[in-house]
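Ticket #4471: structure export looks truncated?
Reporter: QA, pipeline team
Priority: medium

Steps to reproduce: submit the single chain below to the structure queue and open the exported record.
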Amino acid sequence: MSAGLAPFDVTLRDGRTVHVRNTGAADETEILQAFHRMGDDARFMRFMGFVREPNLARLRKVLASFPAGGEGIVATVPAADGIDIAGSATYLVGADPAQCEFSITVAGSYTGVGLARILMTTLIAAAKQRGMREMEGFVLAANRPMLRLATRLGFSIVPDPDDRSVRLCRLRLTDEQPSAAASP
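Actual output as written to the record:
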């Protein structure tokens, strides 16, 4: 299990600064606010379908699963009510305890300034620290910015055999090569 992320501040390409830290149950209200600030297109790309309201039960289940079931990271900025979430990234441990699935969301006003890359590299490092061997995620084929980022980060990208509109992004997190079966 990960020891947790040491919080840090980072300056984005446009000069704005975000505070990056682990997600916790206390972030529920801010996560809901971030969801409601998302445009329809952003929601479609993130949830791979039209979602009008957040699934509160699922959100609470995911937040309660940390750290045993995965890890969440948020990038926050100061706001009139305290903070706003500019972006978040999560990995959840799969049925195979050495595999995890990632998800990422970046607020529209924070796209194209390096935040997604910061969140993904931080998430990958956290998964490696935990001992995960592989990370994967499902991305809509139309989500070109995310697919470009995944490619730059070393993910292999293949069409989902069950849905041609989706791409499976997979990253090996260890240097270990799969063992080959002994041949006679």
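Status: closed, not a bug. The export was complete when the record was re-opened. Leaving a note from the reviewer for reference: Residues 179-184 have pLDDT under 50 and may be disordered.
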